[in-house]
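Batch manifest, entry 17 of 40.
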Amino acid sequence: MSPHAAFVAGYRAGRVKADVDPRAAARMVAARLMLPWFLLPAFGVAVALALTGHLWWGLGVFGTAIAVRALIFATSPGYVLHMSLADPAFFDAAQQAGALRITPDIVRAGS
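Output type: C-alpha cells
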C-alpha cells in the first residue's frame, strides 16, 4: 500500500490526524497559482487608474486584488488537505513543502 493510500484510509477511518500549517499552505498555494504574476499587474492597473484621474476605480481594483489574496490565503489550508486526500503527487509536494504533517491520532485510535 502506498503512503498516500495509507494516509487516505487512515484519515477516513480516524486513525491519523493531518495538521496543515497555514503559512506553508498559503505559500504553496500562492506559488502553484502563480499569484504574484496576477497581483502585480492588478496593482499596476490600480495605480494607473488612480494616476489618470479614476481614483475610485483604482481603489476598487486595489481592494479587489487585496481581497482575492486574503481569500486565497484564508482558504489554502482546506485546499491543501482536500487536494492531499485526492492526489498522490500533491500529497508528496505538500509534505515536502512542510504544509502537511501526519500524526497518528492516539485519542481516536485508543477508543
